[in-house]
Design a protein that fits this description.
72 residues; mainly alpha; MADF-dom; MADF domain-containing protein
Length: 72
């Protein structure tokens, strides 16, 4: 079943042109949050620090791609 059949209201917002840009934005935002987390490794409260972005844990599958990009 096509997305447009399943969720017709989203067809306007999730076009083939828009989806890659939205995913890239999510990827960039996740990478920035991950960098904040890694820079918060020492000092008071470092152990208790957790990202407040609601999608952070859902996007942890991107860790492999982020590390390979950062090392080049």
């Amino acid at each position: 079943m096509r997305m447009s059949e399943r969720w017709p209201a989203l067809e306007v917002f999730l076009t083939p042109e828009i989806c890659p840009a939205k995913f890239q934005n999510l990827h960039t935002y996740y990478r920035n949050e991950k960098n904040k987390l890694s820079s918060f490794t020492s000092g008071t409260g470092a152990r208790d620090f957790a990202p407040k972005w609601e999608h952070f844990t859902r996007l942890q599958f991107l860790d492999d791609t982020i590390e390979s990009l950062d090392s080049t």
